UniProtKB/TrEMBL annotation:
<dbReference type="InterPro" id="IPR001308">
    <property type="entry name" value="ETF_a/FixB"/>
</dbReference>
<keyword id="KW-0249">Electron transport</keyword>
<dbReference type="Pfam" id="PF01012">
    <property type="entry name" value="ETF"/>
</dbReference>
<dbReference type="InterPro" id="IPR029035">
    <property type="entry name" value="DHS-like_NAD/FAD-binding_dom"/>
</dbReference>
<feature type="domain" description="Electron transfer flavoprotein alpha/beta-subunit N-terminal">
    <location>
        <begin position="70"/>
        <end position="218"/>
    </location>
</feature>
<dbReference type="InterPro" id="IPR014731">
    <property type="entry name" value="ETF_asu_C"/>
</dbReference>
<dbReference type="Pfam" id="PF00766">
    <property type="entry name" value="ETF_alpha"/>
</dbReference>
<dbReference type="InterPro" id="IPR014729">
    <property type="entry name" value="Rossmann-like_a/b/a_fold"/>
</dbReference>
<dbReference type="InterPro" id="IPR014730">
    <property type="entry name" value="ETF_a/b_N"/>
</dbReference>
<comment type="similarity">
    <text>Belongs to the ETF alpha-subunit/FixB family.</text>
</comment>
<keyword id="KW-0813">Transport</keyword>
<protein>
    <submittedName>
        <fullName>Electron transfer flavoprotein subunit alpha/FixB family protein</fullName>
    </submittedName>
</protein>
<feature type="domain" description="Electron transfer flavoprotein alpha subunit C-terminal">
    <location>
        <begin position="270"/>
        <end position="346"/>
    </location>
</feature>
Length: 410
């Protein structure tokens, strides 16, 4: 099975530890960019790269005393950085010289390995959750971190989930030079598409770099120091005044957080769903499967075979001829895992497969494989969910006034 990730031949260079590479092969089994570069990088750092051979401990990027700093800022999602943020951090680590440290500023809780991602220092701000929108306070926190470490350059992923907006706000507030949608970068220059992506605009490295996806190979042949810094951000008088103004007169506030509106998971497009349960030919009880999806709050997907059999509509099909999804959790019930289906889930973070065949292709892709009958597993999960729901309801009833004695006597 060919698991190499397709690369746009028109795309610009990709940054690796060996410098800029115009053509970078995909890595077999990993779905990432840069196997050829990875082998060259491993050889350059004295690390073996042979099938079945355990990789040696990676060396530190630098042990010299830092004289300069590069700052990378990004939002965490459930304690981790997404692929785009990891690429941005890798860009700073690859560009930094021996006397430059890479400082990672994380908005939200972070439980990952900062050193393995290339960071020398980690600053965690758990008070900034991605479920809340506080642009003024995040901007103040970024400005305070910049004032503390005086970085030569600042890097943020150019996305639509907060980082790109924060970078543009900082550039405007600090009157800093900025390059957005950067698709090519090294220690001397950045480049971006112009004229409807028919040509490139190139300039020297600005103060602020907003990096586009897939411009950097994120797997590094070295590690950073990974020092966790106890740095606490205190809200300034300006941000406190703005927060107070928003509380007292929300209709006149510049920015007001309206919270997150919860909607039915079935209404979410598969391309945007974060939790998907998918059915294949091994799912015979569709009603029980749909009941489980509703209980878990997951969107529903299906394999091509299940769609062709009329069990699900065509818009639920996942795969090369259907939808390509990027869910954090993808549970496949009774799906063998044809190459077309695997192509549709290649960007999912965690894949769980429920299948009777331990040698099915989906088992090679899955992070966890449950060797069991799909119908029995779905029924067991529905029973467990019902039992948990009943237990929760009983506990709530016992806490109601006038119900305590009745519950105890029962």
């Amino acid at each position: 099975m060919n698991t190499l990730k397709r690369i746009d031949p028109r795309r610009p260079f990709t940054v690796t530890a060996q410098g800029l590479r115009r053509i970078t092969l995909g890595s077999a089994g990993g779905g990432g960019v840069g196997a050829a570069a990875g082998e060259a990088n491993s050889a350059a750092f004295g690390m073996p790269h042979a099938a079945g051979q355990r990789e040696q401990t990676k060396p530190r990027r630098t042990t010299a005393s830092p004289q300069h700093a590069l700052l990378v800022a990004a939002h965490a999602d459930r304690g981790a950085l997404d692929e785009h943020a990891r690429q941005t951090l890798a860009a700073a680590a690859l560009i930094a010289d021996a006397h430059t440290e890479v400082v990672l500023l994380v908005f939200g809780e972070f439980s990952g390995d900062a050193a393995a991602l290339g960071a020398d220092k980690l600053i965690e701000l758990p008070q900034f959750d991605r479920r809340s929108y506080a642009p003024a306070e995040e901007l103040a926190a970024l400005a305070a971190c910049v004032a503390t470490y005086a970085p030569v350059h600042i890097f943020l992923p150019d996305n639509a989930t907060g980082d790109g907006d924060l970078g543009r706000r900082y550039a405007a507030a600090a009157n800093a030079s900025v390059a957005t949608h950067v698709v090519e970068i090294d220690a001397a220059h950045v480049a971006t598409y112009v004229h409807a992506q028919t040509s490139f605009a190139v300039r020297a490295l600005p103060e602020l770099v907003l990096l586009a996806p897939n411009a950097v190979y994120p797997k590094l042949p070295f590690v950073g120091a990974g020092e966790r810094v106890a740095w606490r951000f205190e809200r300034s008088a300006d941000t406190q005044a703005q927060a107070q103004a928003q509380t007292q007169a929300p209709q006149r506030a510049v920015v007001r957080d309206l919270g997150i509106e919860e909607i039915d998971a079935a209404q979410v497009a598969l391309e945007e769903a974060d939790f998907i349960v998918s059915a294949g030919n091994g799912v015979s009880d569709v009603a029980a499967f749909e009941r489980l999806a509703a209980t878990l709050g997951a969107a529903i997907g299906a394999s091509r075979v299940a769609v062709d059999d009329g069990k699900f509509t065509r818009d639920k099909q996942i795969g090369a001829t259907g939808k390509t999804v990027e869910a954090s959790v993808y549970i496949a019930f009774g799906i063998s895992g044809a190459v077309q289906h695997l192509q549709g889930i290649k960007d999912c973070r965690h894949v769980i497969a429920v299948n009777l065949d331990a040698s099915a292709p989906i088992a090679k892709r899955a992070n966890l494989t449950v060797i069991a009958d799909a119908r029995e597993t779905i029924a067991a999960l529905n029973d467990a969910a019902a039992a948990a729901r009943d237990a929760r309801g009983t506990s709530a009833a016992l806490l109601q006034p006038g119900k305590l004695a009745e519950g105890v006597l029962a």
